Amino acid sequence: MPHEPKKRHSRERKGERRAAIKLAVKKSIKCPNCGAATLPHMVCKSCGFYKGQEAVKTKKQAAK
Question: Does residue 32 contact residue 52 with C-beta atoms inside 8 Å?
């Protein structure tokens, strides 16, 4: 015997329930090396530095 709801919920009630489910904006910080916006605890995509040390060589640095 399948368990089904006894009454149908209206569109308004469904919307009220789903209003609490929303996307959160990710927090970003300034890279101390170049000043670009990056995610915390991640390597900077523009300069490749993490905690003041070069972690990844970027295309810009490889061209030089």
Answer: yes
Helices (H) and strands (E) in the chain, counts: 2, 4
pTM, whole model, 2 decimals? Answer: 0.53
Q: Which residues contact 29 (CB under 8 A, 6 or more apart)?
A: 37, 38, 39, 40
H-state helical runs in 5-64: 11-18, 59-63
The model's confidence at residue 10, banded by pLDDT at 50, 70 and 90, is very high
**Residue 42, Cα to own-chain centre: how many angstroms?**
12
- Sequence-distant (6+) residues with CB within 8 A of 38 are 28, 29, 30, 31, 44, 45, 46
